[in-house]
Structure to design on (103 residues):
């Protein structure tokens, strides 16, 4: 389960058992980046995109994908709380959650 919650003076991002705190300005910047087709921006460059403490890389050569599957532009996300792979639509949905808690 993924959640983004506004607390007193910080934003709490939780995915599974791991959580990380963000300042409202960092959460706002992250929400803006995630709302503007982040997968295409990441896949268009060979260098990782960095937004605050978050690092986004194209997940080239993903191991768990069958040849018959549609190739998807998965994005590898690194943060102090952990590492994950997201699909483009998941990143946009996550951006909506960040924008909802940071006016």
């Amino acid at each position: 389960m993924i959640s983004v919650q506004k607390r007193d003076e910080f934003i709490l991002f939780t995915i599974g058992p791991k959580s990380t705190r963000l300042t409202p300005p960092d959460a706002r910047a992250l929400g803006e980046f995630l709302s503007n087709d982040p997968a295409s921006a990441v896949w268009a460059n060979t260098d990782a995109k960095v937004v605050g403490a978050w690092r986004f890389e194209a997940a080239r050569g993903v191991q768990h994908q069958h040849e018959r599957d549609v190739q998807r532009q998965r994005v590898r996300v690194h943060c102090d709380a952990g590492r994950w792979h997201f699909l483009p639509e998941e990143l946009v949905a996550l951006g909506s959650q960040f924008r909802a808690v940071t006016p």
